[in-house]
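Suppose you are handed only two things: the residues of a chain and a line of SMILES describing flavin-adenine dinucleotide. What would the bound structure be? This form records exactly that question and the answer produced for it, so the two can be stored side by side and reused later without any lookup.

QUESTION INPUTS
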Amino acid sequence: MAKVIDSKIPAGPVPEKWKEYKAHQRLVNPKNKLKLDIIVVGTGLAGASAAASLGEMGFNVINLCIQDSPRRAHSIAAQGGINAAKCYQNDGDSVYRLFYDTVKGGDYRAREANVYRLAEVSNNIIDQCVAQGVPFAREYGGMLANRSFGGAQVSRTFYAKGQTGQQLLLGAYSSLSAQVQAKKVKLYTRYEMEDVVIVDGRARGIIAKNLVTGKLERFSANAVVIATGGYGNTYFLSTNAMGCNCTAAVQCYRKGAMFANPSYVQIHPTCIPVHGDKQSKLTLMSESLRNDGRIWVPKKIEDAKALQQGTKQGWEIPEEDRDYYLERRYPAFGNLVPRDVASRAAKERCDKGFGVNNTGLAVFLDFSESINRLGLDVIMQRYGNLFEMYEEITDVFPGDVANEINGVKYYKPMMIYPAIHYTMGGIWVDYELQTSIPGLFAIGECNFSDHGANRLGASALMQGLADGYFVLPYTIQNYLADQAVWPKVSTDLKEFDEAEKAVDKELDRLLNIKGKRSVDSIHKELGHIMWEYVGMARTAEGLKTGLKKMHDLEKEFDTNLFVPGTKEGLNVELDKAIHLRDFFTMGQLVAFDALSRNESCGGHFREEYQTEEGEAKRDDEHYFYVGCWEYQGKGNEPTLVKEPLEYEAIKVQTRNYKN
Ligand SMILES: Cc1cc2nc3c(=O)[nH]c(=O)nc-3n(C[C@H](O)[C@H](O)[C@H](O)COP(=O)(O)OP(=O)(O)OC[C@H]3O[C@@H](n4cnc5c(N)ncnc54)[C@H](O)[C@@H]3O)c2cc1C
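ANSWER OUTPUT
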């Protein structure tokens, strides 16, 4: 190994590491907190919770986001819930079990110690949010309710109907607002970070664009935290909000921060299928629906053909002719297998011709059994807004009776298909959530820390809030403890000058290409390449083709892009062009990583490496590491650095959801 990475994981048995860490970490002298400024970029669940906590602890926080309000961060879209090991159901859950499920769910590619810490603080998150007034669903007796998510045999997901992200974000936002009011947090909305400024090897500030005036502004601080979300929109069509981008993360990567496991991209099994080429967004139907919905395709190919031609409807197919393929293949977990497993199984059925809509790329998610068992009222209480959202988009209400066969009522099923949803890869961070640039931290979806090769449902909100409320506010102090003696640097330094000039030059370059193609048309083409060659099923051959196509398309971007308007004032097209420039870097990084990993694990599926039953085949002997990439300049292959994984509490084995 060319380089050894210090992940700062304390020695000792896994459950003790975090306690050990806390016992020995350095804290900032309370008097000095007032002298320390921290920039937090992002106001999603990770950013808002971190900014609020750091402000409350006494630091001066500068908090930025691209939306007009923190409440509009992409986190608001989260539907299904948030995990915690409270064991309110008395079903045998525990911190250890959540830890185990998460490591197993990540296909044994996550850092053990980080995941343990995550499981341990999961319970505090629920208490914190309840204290903030988050209206989690409750049982009749007043106890917080739980439901199940994939990859778990216990019920540990706390939820607020299908709007959990929104409610959690409102909670974090109220804490943030209190700190804004107390003047501990200065909030900058409609500001986009364009670059990180490095002074003497440490992150000392950022260059941000005021998205309304178009002006570039400089911010200096003692540390910078990025909480800017994932890179799912590299694929153009995804369940992510349209504004999600990876510009801040990619710019940190260009400046020397390592990027870890980029090929680990999550494809969610239950999204509304693509229905044309004019679409710019895909809609998620929460995984929580798999608690009560059953996934199926017809057993007979002639039924599938009839469904595709529109001469038959799903509800006309009797029970005995339905293939509940997840229940058949994975009896122990059934419809609640992890997302990567469920997505591949749907693709396998559709590839074999059993798809149920006109494109052949859809399977059914059917609530007939649960509505017959529990009644429509109960199902609506659990998923009402999701049913309504589905109806608004497709004009089909999944609670409508459509047929009766042998006295059994059949309701109109949803149609779903896998889509890009979440990115497990991200900026590499050590145990303290510090990147490979001292003073630069990354939290939430934009880091790689806890999910390995596949994220279990309801674990992203858990990780984002764990990072923001309970981990970063402590670990960052270890870095800041001796920084109080170093005053904040002036924004007149040449490093700020150079960074600002470079950003300005890039804006001019993009505006002056004056070609013929819109940002969206090129982005859409990039998305097709990503989905086709770097998507659900990858091969070495396909990845090389994908890389070549991306390279050619990037040239087209550099020579034939058209961005209207000027850099003064609001220019949404210019902002999108910057994002697309960075999606190109990201797309190639995903492909390089996927090409280097000659195995299948979690969301990274290489067709050459699968079992006879079509399951992912890992190669622990050669790939039991975090793949960290160092930028080597535009168009050049980045350098791979490996962080070996070490497991001491959990036995690394083949994932099994069958029994
Ligand atoms: C439809 C959907 C449903 C989901 N449901 C669930 C669920 O039920 N449970 C679960 O656990 N997870 C769920 N997830 C995943 C989860 O919502 C996200 O992983 C999580 O919210 C990410 O939070 P974050 O704070 O890291 O980033 P985000 O919420 O994406 O926030 C990013 C922030 O960074 C800011 N930003 C970005 N770039 C810049 C820049 N250059 N300069 C300044 N600011 C910038 C944005 O303005 C925003 O404030 C879901 C995801 C989707 C898409």
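WHAT STANDS OUT: The mean pLDDT is 95. Residues 572-596 form the longest helix (25 residues).
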